[in-house]
Amino acid sequence: MTGLDRTDPEGEIAKTVARVSNWGRWGEDDVRGTMNFLTDTKRVEAAGLVRTGRSYSLSLPFDMDGPQNGWRRRTNPVHTMLDTGTDAVAGVQGFPHGIGGADDVIAMPLQCSTQWDGLGHIFDHGRAWNGRPAESVVTSLGDGVTGIETVADVVCGRGVLLDVGRALGAELDTELGTDGELPDGFAITEEHLERTIAAQGSAVGRGDIVVVRTGQLTRARRGLAAGEGWGGYAGGPAPGLSFTTADWLHRTEIAAIATDTWGFEVRPNEFDDAFQPLHQVAIPHLGLFLGEMWDLDGLASACAADGRYDFLLTAAPLRVTGAVGAPVNPIALR
């Protein structure tokens, strides 16, 4: 928090925006923000990172046992069967010559599990990405300008894991009884990110999709195994990116960034009275796509085992027209 006035989040946000805003960078009609950095050439280069063919799903399950607690009407998915094997055997489906089948339906908030925040998700003083009035972007019909479908065919490229939990966790007196995890409320600064990059021998640059492992999901899983439930994973205290990383996010020209936490940035936030101030800069001003609740543990173990932290990552959102966020099953290929 060095140099930040804890009592003035609005002023600090304004000063940061003045330094990092991407408004107009790709023209007044742009709807893809930092995804413009992820070019065809970058995807071709990323394809060359596949060496073993091993693939890793970075998604949490979408089921009723998920972490949501109902805050702002965010609930866990409700999965209902419409046709079942029981119906088929009972002969009530009405199909000929013995054929039967099963069908199902799911009802859920689009940001209830592993997902992308789209560019219509957050506003700053009534302005959406690229300076548009929020009311002209998102209405009761959805996001008619920057809906998540605008990037459905581009989110595939070089993924880079920054395992900050492993890089720093062992150095911290967390009293967690294990390495590889950051304590709740830990603010990951630019210095922490760069130290992790150096320790891994990695590089981060234009067009990359960065995934940051804090280890909080690892800790939450222990609670689940012990019968303690998800605790405060959804909306409670968490490690995450410091507000001060806005300049790093801008300077590196990454296409997107995701974490293994519910809210991406550190919680509680770093001001006396604030709610997700880094979102307020990153989405409407940087045009940066944020991923949340990504499961990075299996990938992190594989990367730590062979020292390779970059991979081909395909992470297209579900193509829900007009959505301001959408579920995703990211796949890392190594």
TrEMBL record:
InterPro entries: KFase/CYL, KFase_sf. The lineage of its organism: Bacteria, Bacillati, Actinomycetota, Actinomycetes, Propionibacteriales. Pfam families: Cyclase (PF04199). GO terms for molecular function: arylformamidase activity. GO terms for biological process: L-tryptophan catabolic process to kynurenine. This is Cyclase.
